[in-house]
Every structure is written in C-alpha cells, then in structure tokens.
Write a structure and sequence with these properties.
single chain; 178 residues; mainly alpha; Rna Polymerase Sigma Factor, Chain: A; Arc Repressor Mutant, subunit A; 2 domains; 81% helix; disordered N terminus
C-alpha cells in the first residue's frame, strides 16, 4: 500500500512538472515567437526557413526541459545555432550546384521593402558572422550585452568588440553605396 501511494505521488509531481513546463513554453511562444522568427529570418533571409528554425528550437527546449536553466536564453541560442547550421548546409549545396536565379519579389514585397531598408539588410548580411549576430541581437532583438554574451556563449568584452567592429564596417559599407 505504501509503495502504491509513493508511485501515485511521484506521478502527480511529474504531471505537475509537465503542466508547469507546458505553461512556461506556451507563454514563451506567445511572447517571443515573433521576435525569434524575425531573428531567424534576418540570419536566413527566408520567412519559411525562419519559422521552421524557431519551431525546431521550441521542440528542442521541450525535449531538453530538465537541463534548461533559462528557457528564453536557450531558445535564442538554439535559434542561432539552427540558423548557422542551415546556412552551412546552403553553402555546401551552392558549391555543388549552379546557383539558381532568385525569384523576383512580388509587388507586395517590393512595396513593403523600401530601398533604404534593403541596402541596410544587405550591408548587415555582408558582415562577418559574429559581428552580424551581435548587431542583430542588440539592435533588432534589443538584447543587452549580457544577454547577447549568454546567447552566443562569448564574453561581454567580445560582444562589445564584435558590435563596435560591426557598426564601423556597416557605416563604411553604407557610405560607399551613397
């Protein structure tokens, strides 16, 4: 009888933990999904791929819940890592096949994407990876230096250095275009 009571209590605790996890993940999804998709899209240059990466990140947080200390930081880091992996696969694929002609923008996309914004996005995408990631996380996702350092797994000093160099390179590239 005692063993049955302990098993029932143990099951109740695990159900409670699952319920807490589900509530936290639902709240994270509601609050941060759009910004995580924007982050992924900036790194991948494709809405659908960005959404896939974010969904995969949420699945991984769900699967690794017991090891995750800060779910939002883990989500951001996972989005960054999955985006990097996807970009590496794209680069390998491009080396193997002729680059396809990029489809023309639709009238809606063209109207929404002003020339100035496109120039800035192109300049950001041309930056080295760490500089690009630091600037995107700082100015687009609006993270602090500490949050960026935690997300990328680097020191605060490295965040400052990459951000400073990235801003200087970005300014130079945009000046050259004018």
């Amino acid at each position: 009888m005692m063993m049955a009571d302990m098993t029932a209590a143990g099951d109740g605790r695990s159900e409670l933990a699952r319920a807490d996890r589900d509530v936290v993940l639902t709240d994270l999804h509601r609050e941060h999904y759009p910004s995580l998709v924007r982050l992924a899209c900036l790194l991948l240059d494709e809405q659908g791929a960005g959404e896939e990466v974010v969904q995969e990140a949420f699945v991984r947080v769900h699967q690794s819940w017991v090891r995750v200390e800060n779910p939002l930081t883990y989500l951001r880091a996972t989005v960054m890592n999955l985006a990097r992996s996807r970009m590496r696969r794209r680069l390998v694929a491009r080396r193997r096949v002729e680059p396809a002609v990029r489809p023309a923008m639709s009238a809606e996309e063209h109207t929404l994407l002003l020339a100035d914004q496109q120039e800035v996005l192109d300049a950001v995408r041309a930056l080295p990876r760490r500089q690009r990631e630091c600037l995107v996380l700082r100015y687009y996702v609006e993270l602090s230096e500490t949050e960026i350092a935690s997300t990328l797994g680097i020191s605060n000093g490295s965040v400052k250095s990459h951000s400073s160099r990235g801003l200087a390179a970005l300014a130079q590239r945009l000046e050259e275009r004018t």
